[in-house]
Predict the 3D structure of the following.
Amino acid sequence: MDTRNIKRQALYLVIGALGCVLVWKIAPLLSTSSFVIRMTPGANMTQGPHAPPGSVLVNVSMVGFDPASIEAKAGQPLKLAFFRPNTANCGREVVFPSLGIRKELPPGQTVVVDITPSKSGPLGFECGMKMLKGQLIVR
Ligand SMILES: [Cu+2]
């Protein structure tokens, strides 16, 4: 990761923190004033993940891939649904080096990766910069 990326991530963190403080300060004022903003469920919120049935949802955040370790069976197709809620992490791409798979993870979108592990053993995946790591445990 280059320093420009670090700076940008720090900026997002600061903006995020300011946003939280702002909401925390303003929300009580709004609820006691004459105009009450009615929040419909899901309004003003980041789109959640859309993991298809039977897929394993993998969140991509600052902490890394969650779960970072996923059980799989050799010869059985596996659907991994990667969801990166925001850009406050370096998981712009997910890469399966041994399979030659590389997929962009646009924030707020669920990206499904289909994999059929051929043999048992660990099968690693990582972000484009090899900083975030995860693995399939293939049996
Ligand atoms: Cu990275």
User: Anything to note?
Assistant: The two ends are 34 Å apart (CA to CA).
